[in-house]
Amino acid sequence: xxxxxxxxxxxxxxxxxxxxxxxxxxxxxxxxxxxxxxxxxxxxxxxxxxxxxxxxxxxxxxxxxxxxxxxxxxxxxxxxxxxxxxxxxxxxxxxxxxxxxxxxxxxxxxxxxxxxxxxxxxxxxxxxxxxxxxxxxxxxxxxxxxxxxxxxxxxxxxxxxxxxxxxxxxxxxxxxxxxxxxxxxxxxxxxxxxxxxxxxxxxxxxxxxxxxxxxxxxxxxxxxxxxxxxxxxxxxxxxxxxxxxxxxxxxxxxxxxxxxxxxxxxxxxxxxxxxxxxxxxxxxxxxxxxxxxxxxxxxxxxxxxxxxxxxxxxxxxxxxxxxxxxxxxxxxxxxxxxxxxxxxxxxxxxxxxxxxxxxxxxxxxxxxxxxxxxxxxxxxxxxxxxxxxxxxxxxxxxxxxxxxxxxxxxxxxxxxxxxxxxxxxxxxxxxxxxxxxxxxxxxxxxxxxxxxxxxxxxxxxxxxxxxxxxxxxxxxxxxxxxxxxxxxxxxxxxxxxxxxxxxxxxxxxxxxxxxxxxxxxxxxxxxxxxxxxxxxxxxxxxxxxxxxxxxxxxxxxxxxxxxxxxxxxxxxxxxxxxxxxxxxxxxxxxxxxxxxxxxxxxxxxxxxxxxxxxxxxxxxxxxxxxxxxxxxxxxxxxxxxxxxxxxxxxxxxxxxxxxxxxxxxxxxxxxxxxxxxxxxxxxxxxxxxxxxxxxxxxxxxxxxxxxxxxxxxxxxxxxxxxxxxxxxxxxxxxxxxxxxxxxxxxxxxxxxxxxxxxxxxxxxxxxxxxxxxxxxxxxxxxxxxxxx
Length: 788
What we know:
The chain is mostly helical. It is 65% helix and 6% strand. Helix 17 (341-393) runs antiparallel to helix 18 and helix 20 runs antiparallel to helix 21. The relative contact order is 0.03.
């Protein structure tokens, strides 16, 4: 039973065929996953298992360039055959309806009723059949143009034969159309060596003619063909490739410039091209000859074969007879009428005499022909020997090869051209061998350094340069061995006893099994993976704790997923899946927070708005798992807001201090120095700092605990220190309280013991120096310390 085509099975592009190895491997993995799903399916299971068993063969074929190309060709043929079968009945009916030369809209509607095709599909098929018919007509025209022109009678004949309007045929004619009585000089034939070179290069690129090579219709005028030739030449010059196709195309472009230079050279090419099919038909006639005779049954076969070359029965009969006359061959004709005995005797006698005369003439001619042949053979041998002497004298191997190639191109095939071909092979081997040795060395070095892709590229480059070279098979074999070496190296890496964690080791095992499902190392890797299960679980738990602490929920989720994928039958899977669900929930919740913050845009320094957004989120999601972190974030924002406000106040103070003529110096770490008294004052009093007034007891406690500008030992100032600060000019300009507590007080009794504290006003122009105020009142505080 023939297996399914891998291109079709993998749903890969066939025309043009997909060649990208990454895309092919991706398609294999996708199909493998798809088939694995259906392994236990009641109806699809058996087929799915068969496909899974074929994975190894699929990879073998699709990774080998030669096998892959053949697979692509087979796929194209299968699709073409499928397409042909699909349209077979429709095509038959189109042929019937088209016998009158066209198909009407009513007939198309009738075909729509008979088939499930759309109107567009039917019209496309009609156009295709029309093109096939025109191609057949072109073959007939091509044969008839071998004489350099076509007659009006021949056009009418083709019109009737193919049921096509004669005007359409005239439009496709390249060259003059004459009546049967007109005379025209036959075009000069192309040089045979030139014709051979053109034909050989067309074969290399898979084209039938120069028109086909240019993608141009044969009915175009000379000017159009010249322009198309220039466009084609520009296209070839832009190509960065230097393969056989580009080389052959470059040669053909040069011939196009020559052939389509004038109508005369074009007609010479058309005539030569037309005779090409006839030369093929002549070979068929020669194959049918036996002992100087064409038997009747072979003659009938030749008539049928002639249709493939564009000849009808009458034309084919005439051509076969003329060809046989030139070769002195006879065509077997049955039912020869019987003669009377006397007549037969007379005829026999005359025939005998004629035969004797003919034999004498033939012998004489044969002797002369033999002498001529020997002379020609000696000349050819001498010419070849002279060539060999020149070749051997030439040191450059490439020039030797070129000389022999030119000899082959300029001579018809004989024993010396064959000898030249053999010598070319030997020279090619000498040319290729150093490159072959260098390629092998490069490949071995790349493989040694585990640079497998580079090794493959070196092999591919050699095969592209020398596709038919003597070393091509060795390089291909070397290239075919690289995938196995990659697999072995990957296996060695997977089982290497390095310092990597057990988690990474099992990851390598799993990756190897996915990449090489049919490897010889599969059993060993599976055993190693299974033996690592408990250690993997323990290390996974430890790592999960670290990930949870770092709140890396996505990594934790993936780690749990890896375990359930690697060990699906483990008893620990349910517990791990629960953790996986928790981590997934964390990921989703974090996503919710991220989305929420993105929806509420705010400025980076807008700390109040940020606090509000986080508070609103907690109100909407009171059970959020990172609630404490968000509360902490809010507190951080409050602190940043406070620092920002303090900075604003410091900037305001700095501006005011600039007016004191250098008495006060601001330090960026939060205090000022009074150069007049040598005292250090905290830059922010209670109003600026904590934005409140304090009782005397609270003020005393406040300065004791104060750490302003990273300094300690702060205290309440004495009266004279406050007076100096606010009353001496230039006075301290920043005043946020009408009066400030000093460190001096007295006690008195009135309905109980009370403290009376000396205070100083902040008014610079006031004559009052100090006033006693009850310690329970709320006043301002300026903390002070000495410079030491």
